[in-house]
Each structure stands twice: as C-alpha cells, then as structure tokens.
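Run folding on both entries below.
>entry_1
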Amino acid sequence: MLSVSIAFKRLIIGRPLSSDRLGEQMLPKRIALPVFASDPLSSVAYATQEILLVLTLGGVAYLHLTPWVAAAVVLLLAVVVLSYRQVVRAYPSGGGSYEVASRNFGAWAGLVVASALMVDYIMTVAVSVAAGVDNIISAVPMLDPYRVAVNLGFVALLTGMNLRGVRESGRLFAVPTYLFVAGVLAMIVAGLLQTALGHPPVAESAGWQVRPMPGELGLTGVALLLLTLRAFSSGCTALTGVEAISNGVPAFRPPRSRNAATTLALMGTLSITMFAGITALAMIAHVRYTGDTCRLVGFPGDCTHTSQRTVIAQIAAAVFGGPHSVMFFYVQTATALILILAANTAFNGFPMLGAILAEHRFLPRQLHTRGDRLAYSNGIIILAVAAGVLIYAFQGSVTRLIQLYILGVFTSFTLSQAGMVRHWNRVLAGRPAPPERRRIHRSRAINAVGACLTALVLAVVLATKFTHGAYLVVIAMPLLYTTMRGVRRHYDRVARELRPRPGGVTLPSRVHAVVLVSQLHQPTLRALGYARATRPDTLTALTVRISPDEERALRADWEEREIPVPLTVMESPYRDITGSVLDYIARLHQEHPGDLIAVYIPEYVVGHWWEQLLHNHSAFHLKARLLLQRGVMVTSVPWQLDSARHSRC
C-alpha cells in the first residue's frame, strides 16, 4: 500500500529535487511575469464588469459615470505600482508588505498585514477560478449546472501543478498569460480601429434596457456619490495581486530587486492599457450587464435559468463578428485560462508568506518546510482547501464572492505604504549624500501619496461593501491575527521551558524500569532483554489481570521459562488496562519522587494499512497518557511481523 501511495505521489508532483537545486528554481523576468502577475493582469477581465454591475442598479441612467470611475481606478493602480517599486528596492528579502509593516510599526502591524494578505490570497483563488469558469460557461452554457464541480476540479488541478514546483508551474502558466495579453490587445486595437473607421462594434446587449432596482432611480447628491463610490470600490478589483511581486522577490534571478521592479512596471503598464481599453470598448459597444438577467428588458433567453455573457465576451463577439467566430473563442479560451491560472499568484504568494510567518514563529513550523519539489507544499494544500470551501459555500458565484474581495488588499496597501514613509524618514535621518537625498525624497513622496490614496479607498471599500459580505472578512482578519499571536505565545513558552538550566546535565539518582506485558511472546521477550541491557536499578514486568484464566496461563509460562524478572499483576475489576498501569506508575513515582521511571512497551510493526487496524490500539492510547506524566520515559520496542519485513517502501 505504501508503494502505491508513493507511486501516485510521484505521478502527481514528480521526482523529488535535492536542496542544492534550489537555485535552478529561480525565475527570469519572462517567467516571473505570468507567475506573480497573472492575478492583476487577469483581473482586468472582470474589473470593468464589476463597475457596470453597480452602475446598472439604477438602470442605464448612470452608465455615463463609467469613464470617470475607470479613470480613478487607473490613477490608483499607477500610484500603487510606483509605490511597490520602492518596496522591492528597499526590502528585497521577500516579506513585502508584511516585512515593511513589521519593521516600521512593530509585530502587531505585521500581523494585521499578514492576516489581510492571507484572506486576500484565499479570495484570489476562489474569485479567479470562479470568474474563469464563468467565461467557460459563457462559451459553453451547458456546463452551468456543474459550475461548483468544475470550479473544484480546477482548484485541484492548480494544486497539483504547483506542488510540482515554482519553475515548472511557471512554464506551464506562461503561455496562457501571453496568449491572453495578445488576444485582449488585438481586440482593443481592432475595436478602436473599427470605431475610427466609422463602424463601431455593437454589443448584443446594446438594445436592451435595464430595470432599475427599487430606490436606485433618480439618485442625486449623497446617494449618487455613494453609488459612484461603490462602483469605484468594485472596480478596484483591478488592483488585486499587485503586492505579490514584492512578496516573491527571492524567487527572481539576480539582480533580484531590479528584476522585480522591472516586472512590476511591465505588469502595471499592461494592466492599465488593457483595463482602459476594455472599459472604452464597453462604452463604445453600449454593453449592458446586470447581476439579475430578469432585469434586462429584451433578454432573449429564460432569465431564471440562463446567465448573461460576461462583458469581455460581449465585447469580443461585437469586435470579431459574433459569438461563433474563431477569435471570439480564442479570447474566451485565453480569458478563462488566465483567470483560472491567475490563482497561481496566490499559490506562490500564500505559501511564501506562510513560510516567513512560520520562520518568525507566528504559524506552525511545518509551513516553513519545503516539499519534494522544493515548493512549500503544506501552504499550497492549506490554500487549496480554504479556497475550495469558499467556492462550495458560495456556489462558485463571482458576484457573491467578489463582495469579500479587496478589503484585505487595501489594508495591506495602506500599512505598507505608511511603513515606507517611516522607512524613508529613518534613512534621511542618517544624512545621506545630496543626490541620494533627492532620490529618497522622491520615493517618500510616492509612498506618502500611495498611503493617503489607499487609506481613502480602504474607507470607501469598508463603507460600501460591509453589508454586502465584507463583514465576513472583518471577522476573519481578527481571528487570524489572534491565532497567529497565540501560536507565537505557544512557541515562546515552549522555548522558555526547554532552555537548558545552569549547571550542565543532571543525572537521575536511580532508574526504575517497567516492561508492560500482555502475554509471553517474542515482542515481550525482546522488550525484557532490551530493558535488562540498559542496567536499571530495578526492573519489573507489569501485567493487568482482565481474565483470571489468562493471568494463570501467563504465570505458568513465566515460571516454566524461568524468566529472571519479577512479574507484577495489577487488578482491574473494570477491565481498564490504561488506568491500572497509570495507577501503578503513579504509586512508583510517589515512592521514589526523585528517580526516573522508564516504561518499555512491546509493539507490532505491520506492513499493510489494514493490519494496523487490528493491532497496537491499547499501546497507542497508553503511550499517549504516559507521555503526559512527569519523570516518566516511554520506549517503544518494535517487533516486525513478516508483512513488515517483506514490504517495499
């Protein structure tokens, strides 16, 4: 069974890599871009859609606000990209926002950022995969009833690919990312060229009207401002994943900081170009998009069972001649792939952040251990499970999942940029040379503007999305924060208790050995021989009487073999072996309070999983209880059965 499980593992993740090959996993810029930037690049596929989704709550009356909302998102994206270029230069060790906040504000700020980023990474996987499946369903509507199953299948596929290693998964993800960028840029150029020639593209929804939601028509003043701000906060999904490059700087080839900064600039340029182009074409083609197709007047299908095509699907159909053209399917395929593979940004960022937190003892140390393929396997699996639970709970609905998004993003943005301002102030206090001072002043100004803008957006997101699902994130972040503080307190307490006392090694005055006996067989004889070889001060064979007949038979065998160890029999009227043994050990410890008690437990070693169900249960529970006793050492004495000797690992 063990060999079968290992063969299956090798099939999924491949052969293990030695630690000295870690350098081979470093990424060039052309691979790092799709690995770390697929999330912000892909989010342009639904950022415009989220803006339209909010503005059409009032019908089509407020769609004229779309360009202004999109322009605000573009400005914010440019500022954040510039700000994070300063981060990767100042903190190349890969901690990103977590390291910046921790070093400049203390551990509490770092944990706030870490909890925000962990929530964001989980949401990235759930939202990206769900959005990708949405685009697949736009091209193949018959898959709609299997939405959740398809989502979970893609999460499992991504998990297996990432368990194979960063470099290998990066090569697999590079092609879809570049195909998506090429397809969207070609669509934008073709659509704008058609418009310039007097034949603008027309979306399939251009002639439809939208019934406004009750109370959303004729908004003015504060109400209109709140609707606009809500649309802006939804459009800010275009910024998700920007910080992933700052978290992954160690994965770049040297010079790491410069390569990471260049990749950030390229990512920002592409994201802004594609987002602006898609928004412009959505306005030119008069796209209408709502969360409830029954509000669309003129929708040709059954609104209760048929979903509307996504915004990017409507634009592709309008530009390339309909929903059956080759280029339409190309754009939809590339969009679905990049959206699903955008989750790879989180699959790289979450495990790396978890490893850093584990190194700082805020998370279990297992998260800092690399797997067979030099990836942080435990973090990858935890992320996949958490995202899968969210997808199942929200039935793979992008509209419902998106409400939980970006709150954590802007929390980390704000603390990171504010921390960078403090960092530059501290550098300036060291009185650097005039040319360096000018550069630092420029960097500080960029980070200060970034901190102010992201703090404002954080307030807007919290106010506009709180009642729509963001309250769950507000609950989750403090829970994660409290958990990480608790883990650190545990590790600190353990470290204090394990610290060596002054005076060197203290030897026990006497050692009392106790061998547990159920019946006289080979494992028992081996345990007795091993215990005698350690030369304890006293040696006792202990058995618990459950059946008088079995106890008499054991005594007879004991005397017949003339075993030179006294056999002590404990009474157990309620057939409680564990309790009787613990009582004996407690009395022995009370009689010899300064001495050490060594308990030897004979155990079978089996070769098949089903055999394990038939043996060693009493020994397992007894050992667990004995390990809690002070002054007691527990030694398992194994006896390999034939199935164990012949099994192959």
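>entry_2
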Amino acid sequence: MKFVSFVFCLCVGFAGIAQAQLPPIFEASRAKDAQTEATVRRFLSPVKILWQTGTVQNAERLLKVGNGQADLSGQGMCSLKSDANGKPSLLLDFGRELHGGLQIVTGQWRESKPITVRIRFGESASEAMADIEPKQNATNDHAIRDMTVQVPWLGKLEIGNTGFRFVRIDLVDGNTELLLKELRAIFVFRDIPYLGSFRSSDQLLNQIWATGAYTVHLNMQDYLWDGIKRDRLVWVGDMHPEVSTINAVFGANEVVPKSLDLARDITPLPGWMNGISTYSMWWILIHKDWYLHNGNLAYLKEQQPYLVKLVDMLIAKIDDKNSEKLDGTRFLDWPSSENQKGIHAGLQAMMAMSLNAAGDISRILSDPATARKCDQAVARLKQYVPDPNQSKQGASLLALSGLMPAEKANRDVLAVGGAQNFSTFYGYYMLQAQAKAGDYKGALANIRQFWGGMLALGATTFWEDFNLDWVKNAGRIDELVPEGKKDIHGDCGAYCYIGFRHSLAHGWASGPTPWLTEHVLGIKVVEPGCKAIKIEPHLEDLTFAEGTFPTPYGIVKVKHTKLASGKIQTEVSGPKEVRIIR
C-alpha cells in the first residue's frame, strides 16, 4: 500500500509537467488497463550447501544475506571453474518449500561475455538432481524447472516460476570460471496475516496444523491453485479443503470468490466444472461454507442463476430407482479411482450433500421452489444406499451425507487399519466422518500417523498423495538418497503423479488444519457471517489446546485446559457481534 501511495503521489506531483514527458503507462487512457499482482516478492538466501562437485571455492559465500546488487569489489566471490576435474555443480537447500524463482548475481570474470549454466529446481533434493527422462518421470509440465540459460557478466538474472526448495546449478561451458556473488530465492506469496492459530500440548499436531496452513498459503497465488509446481490450476474439488483452511486461518480473501467465479464462467452448463461431476457439486458446497463464514449475501445472490440451472441438471441425473446416473468423469480422488462401487457410493452421497446445500442456499435466497425440489431429491436419494465396497472415500461421504450412520461407516470401514488407505485429499472427509461418529481418538491417531509421516520424511508442505506403504526403507526428501534406501519422491507415486511429477505442495492435503480448529479447539460456525459460534472441544489425550479463529468482526480466542479431574476448563473471548454458544 505504501508503494502504491508513493506512485500515486508521484503522478500527482508530475501533473504540472508536460504530459508528453510522462511514461505512457501514466496516461489516463493507458493506466486503466494496467494490471497489478496480489502477491509480493521477498528474497531468501540458501541455508545449506547440500552437495557440490568439481572445482568450487568459497561456496559458503552464497549462504550470506545479499542485496541483489552486482558491484566492482570482486571480494569473496564463489568460484565455479571447469577444468581437468570436470564441470562444477552445487546443490542449494533453501530450508523450506517456496513458490517463485531464482535471482543470480554475478561478478566480473576475465572476458565480458555471458556464461552458460543449467538450473534445476526441485521440491526434493533428488528431484533437483534429476534429468528430464522417463525413468523417474522428472518433467517440465506446467512449470519449467530444468533450464539452460546464459548469465551476464557483472550483472543479474532472474529466472523460474515454480514450487521448489532445492536448486542445483551446473556450469555448462568448458574451460571457464563463473563468479557468483549471490544465488537468492525469489519468494512469491500473498503478504497476508495468519489470523487463525493452533497450539496444544502435542508439538506434532501443532506442526501439522501450521504445515497445512502454509501449504494453502503458498497456493494462494493469482488464483487458488491445487499445487505450486503442478498443476497450478483452479481445480474446484481441490478448493474445498483449501477454502476450509482459508476460513480457519486467513478469513475472507478475494482469491476464493475470484477462483469460484473463474470456474463458473469458463463452465457453461450443461458442462461439469473441470469435466468432473463432483467438482460442480463441490462448487455448491464451497459457496455454502463461504457464506456461513463470511455472510456476504450479495455475493451469494450472484450465484443464483447458475445454481438453479445446476440443481435442475443434478436432479435429472437421478434414475427411477433413486440412484445417481452421473456422466462426465466419475471421480472422487486418485487412490479410489479403480474402485467403481466405492465411487458410485461416493457420488450418491455427493448428490445428497450438494442438493441439501443447494436447498439451504435457496432458502437463504428466498427461492422456495428450488429449495423444495432439492429437498424432494435428497429424500429420494436417501432411499438408495450403495455399498461403499471398503472405500474409505465412499464410506466417509455416505456418513457425512446421512445416507449411512457415521458409527457404522467408521466401525466397518474408516477405523479399519487406522491410517492405512487414507489419502491426502479425502483424508479430510475421513477425519470429518470419524468426528461425526465420535471417534476423535482414532482421528487424532490417523492425523499423527499419516500427515506426521510426511513431516518425518522432511516435508515442509503436504503432498499431492501419500501412502504409508511408501515409508518402508525410504530416504528423506531433504537429503540425497543414501545407498540402499528408496527415493520417496522419485520411486513412488501413481496415476498422474508418478515419480518426480508428484507435487509435494498440494493444497487439498491441508485437511487437518481446519479439522483441528473445528474439533480440538471446538470452534464451529452455526450462523452466517460467524454471528454465532459454538465451542465444543475434544482434547482426548491433550492436556491443553488454545488458538484463534478469524471472523468478519475480529478474532475469537479460546483456551482449553484439562484439569486433574478430567474436566475441561474453557476460556473464550471475541467480538461483541459474535454470540458464543457453549
């Protein structure tokens, strides 16, 4: 804001100068077309030289805080020299997953001509070391992460736009010395405060909450993406857990309606958003949740014309046996994609959930006719309950939709094997179904085992998918894979995310963050716009839990302490506009 104000004042100050002297962008006819970014850029130096080869001197120079400016001092430069020892390379670790690129500041070498280098970005150390080849599926899909470029003599180059933690630089030219003053990450993100918080007696849960929040924060770019390396797209189903996290951590942010509206505007009916029927249904569910948390009735009204037609389209997909007959891509998530019976159960449940939400929205918008159609359709859908076929995805949706008792879904399917057969996306709904069944103890155990399992392997963001079967004899992502160990990134993955194509910063994996806020802190919004919030904590084995929650009126603070008697002592404070129910 200060920079914008400065530019504005500068323009006003120039008003007395002949208009022809101003850059064209400041002309009134052009300024209205200028676009801005919601993100900012910050520069971070690497924290570690993870590996090097060849003739490299003074590599530690690159770990120092830089200023982005080439200079004539020539002192203490990092030198990479190609000679009889071969061509040198460095692998840098920036300490955590970032979105952005790399700034290279150079010194002055013997001849004033560019030098060719190869830059590889990686979400894991091994990905930054990999070639673009089919064996482990390293790719340049969606974001170029492996490139050969020329760097200037005594200058600066900025390259890259991807998700990464590690960067490898190779000197390509022979018989050459490259002098580097700085190699800094360009960190691109929305500069917004973390209004929500979570802290408990379990440090692992605290780290999991924060990691989920950070994962979504990185994906809040121009639009709300699914992943910062891949796919970098607005996938509406992926958005549902992301928006739940945003509601719990950041509160209202324009990236959500902007992304919802994009999905609507590029999907004229009778098309399905992203070509997937469930994703159009998630669009409805997100709108209900967004209104509940933020209370923006005018925005909800804007959705009514599209919603009414979508409701009619959904109802037409119920056959005379009250079973869904959805077309388009029949998809819940990737790990369940081969279980057709489980998908059928999930689709039946999604129909009931989304039409129930559409009915609630229609009542809010004073449309009793549409609300009545939704209620009648939901009643029909509840007359037919498919077998989830041991699909934890299908069982969780059946429980959440009310088509199956949550206790039965949990006992027969969800609790079987603990976190085995969990998934990063639908893990959120598995946890929600376990909470509905009252199995908070089991849900917390699954969070610790499944999401904690990624952290144990060096993750600083949560992954597109994770399977407990991958863990056996696996190396960490923040080290070069030791001899005899499995590469958890390059050797694992499935479906569209085989090997290094696997995204290690995927927003749909953030479910534990809103879950811990809702069920451990016990904060549940019960009236639109957070006018009323119910506090009902479930500490289980925790001795305390405390945190904050964003509302349109300010922050609600809660603190729960387990007394020696086992009773929970609760302290709550918040804005006067928010009614607290206990």
